[in-house]
Amino acid sequence: MWILPEQTTGFLNEIQKEQLTVLFNAILPGDTANHVPNAAKSGAIAFVDLLLARDESVFGDIPKWKALYPKALQIMQEQSVTQFNTSLKELSAEKAASLIMQLEAGALANFLFNGEKIDQPSLFDTLRRHCIQGCFSDARWGGNTNRVMWKWYGYQEETKEI
Amino acid sequence: MKKYDAIIVGSGAGGATAARVLTQKGFTVAVLEKGEWKKAEDFLPYDELHFAEHKALTPDEKKDPLIWVNSKNEEKPVHQWWLSNMVGGATNLWEANLPRYTEEDFSITKFMKEIPTGTSMIDWPWTYDEFQPWFEKAEWEWGVSGAVNQSAAQEKTRPGYDYPMPPIKPHASNQFLQEAFRKHGMNPYQSPRGINSKTYNGRPACPYCGYCQGFGCAVNDRATATNTVLYKALETGRCDVLTGFNVTRLLHEKGKIKGVAYKTEPTGAEKEMTAPLVIVSVQAIHSARLFLNSQIPDPNKMIGRYFTYHTKGAIEFVFKNMPVWGNYRPDSIFQPRTGLGSLQLRDLYMINDKNTYLSKGGKFSIYDPYTISPPIKSISRCGFHPKKAKNVWGKDLIERMIELRSFGGASFSFTGETMSLYDNRVEIDKTRNDDWGVPLPKVFYKHHQYDIDLSKFSLDKVEKIMTDTGGEVRLKEPQGLENPGYGHNHGSLRAGKNESESVLDTECQSWTVKGLYVLDSAWMPTAGASNPTLTQIANVYRVCEKLTK
Fold this sequence. Notes:
The complex is a heterodimer.
Chain A: H1 14-27, H2 44-53, H3 62-84, H4 93-105, E1 112-113, E2 116-117, H5 120-136, H6 148-153
Antiparallel strand pairs in A: 1-2
Helix pairs in contact in A: 1-2, 1-4, 2-5, 4-5
Chain B: E1 6-9, H1 13-24, E2 29-33, H2 48-53, E3 66-69, E4 75-78, H3 103-106, H4 128-142, H5 174-182, E5 189-190, H6 225-235, E6 239-243, E7 246-253, E8 256-263, E9 271-274, E10 277-280, H7 284-293, E11 308-309, E12 311-323, E13 343-345, E14 362-367, H8 375-380, H9 394-406, E15 407-416, E16 425-433, E17 439-444, H10 449-468, E18 471-478, E19 489-490, E20 516-518, H11 533-544
Parallel strand pairs in B: 1-2, 1-10, 2-6, 3-17, 10-20
Antiparallel strand pairs in B: 3-4, 5-13, 7-8, 8-9, 11-19, 12-15, 12-18, 13-14, 14-15, 16-17
Helix pairs in contact in B: 1-6, 1-11, 4-11
């Protein structure tokens, strides 16, 4: 049996978590009328926070992501200020969706961290994948809080309205 | 070092079955496996993130990729998700869909109206009838559940024959889908599966946990090379499974096999083991790689050539006129909601349509898109046609998630005939090695226009029937020109009657190195149009039953 090492401390600071909340809620926004929890309420931010604090013995790509996230969040913050004159953590859902749409298309100008080019479609893929993983993985990884998304989705039990 | 009558390279479907047959015949065999033993409990807990998303059971894509050369001649390292370096090989991770290849595959020139120019679509040097007893042996030794005569399109079997177990539980969508296709003269049926529908050979029945393709079976109800044939070989006392043994080269001299060179540590020294018989079964790409790395004489430049991946295609529907399939009630006659699905649609194996030049076709496996895999993948992979083909996010993602949990759906996965082309090939990368210092395989691959047309035609046929039944397309991915890699790979070391046109003789022995056999799917002269492993296993019985010390 594979045992996931315990991880209690996270990697992201509070501002980074707020920034990631905006981006993840644009990717998986939830739906009040249909009782769908959004990414943040599903625990996806906590999931990434703990995942990045783990080491490569858990998964070989973690060091790469550990280096990527602070850079990516800083660039997205700069993009938010440049385009909307608003801090990323305070961006509206509509404007956050616009940023994600441009990121997916590789259309954000000057997407550089200290001169280093970050591949926009790859970053979109990483954010989308981690967002879905954080919502739908086993709760032992720190997301899917109290199996909230499994309960809503009907995975391993009948669907429940959350 | 202990002396063996035979060395078997690889412990997957081919190697383990060879060990089973040879030990029954009194051979002593060493099975050399690069990976380690895994037990059913090693596949616990049910953790999609660890086992699938974090690729815990497949080769490290940074240390051990294959190099794919696309149609623009660009080289890209590819994760070999279809390989598993552990005892039992990829049978630890398969879905165990075990159809037979049939006459249409063995004798293709009788069935293809026109062989496209520039392709090499040839008859196999054996017939389906010759293979029938070996199919039966494979089905009973590996434990296949299924039922004959469900559909006219199904594989023909001997009168009076049936599988050792009845089919697995039907999926709750079966009746709806079967009625829809029957209106068009087509009959989807429950597929033969290496999944126990009841206790068989000491292994329990499937609980339909949904951790199937890509996951190890923690229940041990799914057949693997280990829990079917390899343990029987071990019971004879004539089989040693040597784990951590990575065979780097085949040793040969004056047209005869001498043995193998291997390493037990990535940075360690190469050692040698000798035997008069060597059987290679490490999947078609890597068997060709081993031949090329070993300088097996190749006077006709055939090693690695006519390599084939199956033609693929996927199409998926939501039926807003149907509620989500199934439930979790323990008394249900259907698979619980975590079940993947269970139907095959084989009515397009041969195409008889005056509006197309296509003749040899393929078949579909039908799944429930809601539970085709555990939730991370089922959500990640979804499309939202016609708005978005893939990578759905935002409000579209939420809407698709609501559809998946609310309505019935169907996901069709196509496996089709593939044109054999000389230029589709496995070579050795001259500049890159894996972490054991062995040159990486380099695969050049482009699908022929026939493959592309076939996939589109077949998907369109299904789309017409399903949309007439109230379905709305959500994902449509026909085969394109490119193929970065696929689990159904064959043909890189073709077997044939004529030395000038093949690498192996009709007994799958090298024409140029006697005593060297290949028993994965590399020997297949053409790709066929079904999941290849049962035919591969049947061939192992056919070949090994004739071998003598």
